Give the backbone structure.
Amino acid sequence: MHRIAVLTSGGDAPGMNAALRAVVRSADARGIDVYGVRSGYEGLIDGELSPLSARSVSSILHLGGTMLGTARSERFLTVEGRQKAISALAAHQIEGLVVIGGDGSFRGADVLSHECDVAVVGVPGTIDNDLSGCDYTLGFDTAVNTALDAIDRIRDTAASHKRAFFIEVMGRSSGWIGLHSAIAGGATDVLLPERPTDIDELQHRIHEAFRMGKQYCLIVVAEGDDAGGAFEVAQRCSEGLAGVSHRVTALGHVQRGGPPLMRDRVLAARLGDAAVTALIDGENRVMVGEVHWEVVRTPLEHTWTAVDPPNRELMELMDRLAR
Ligand code: ADP
């Protein structure tokens, strides 16, 4: 392996820059050239590749977002688009490609690698933690902590006014951020895409919380819950909550930004390095991930076909402690 390329794709996540730095420096230490691709698969199609040195990734470790930029690419879904990407890889004599992204990016990498000789290795970079083959994806820990910081602030005002708050967190199809921020934030209830929501039951819980003497009530709502986002859930509850003062806050994109926390930085260092090692070992179509503190390689296809839902035991724990 003499020359590799690296790109970030799909939704951005804190820790992507730290992973990029690790890929570049790990390759540099082993005498491998690295090219950075701008704007994910869009940039690959347009041939936006340029060399990265150990110095070009200085002082990015602590930054959120991605210095390479990221994109969603309609063109990459077409054979013609991918052929252009393959020509760009060939023109730069790229032998291996590291893709830092989520399940969509891995699907793209998988398809690409079946159409050319370039080996692909994935690094799980998504705040949603919705990939199989790793305990945590890059950005998840930071995103949950950002949500938690907001929840703690909301608690202050909720308690002062004896209010219920519906707090929307990210997670269109994954309840990982919702469940973890609800447990860590001491929420009364959490609504997740992985389990059906019963509005009557929810209203009952909120009334019960105040009847038991609680001074506030926090309901965490994952944006993809079957009952709707936080605004819709609050609307549906409004009649049943007569007499209970309530407000809604959607945390939105603040959860994506900000400096990666320690766990994401260390994970990024480990996985960026492991991706380069995997390419050197001749691996193709695998994702590197941490499982029980060990770095493991999982076939790309398994990462989206065998997705682990949030731990049921944690859901039950959340329910037990919310009293
Ligand atoms: P994420 O990686 O965060 O899940 P997306 O789902 O938006 O982000 O996927 C990123 C990009 O990966 C898409 O814009 C598209 O270019 C590419 N991609 C996704 N699925 C496929 C597929 N089945 N075939 C080819 N490319 C794909």
Q: What stands out?
A: The first strand starts at residue 3 and ends at 8. The radius of gyration is 22 Å. The CA atoms of residues 150 and 205 lie 23 Å apart.
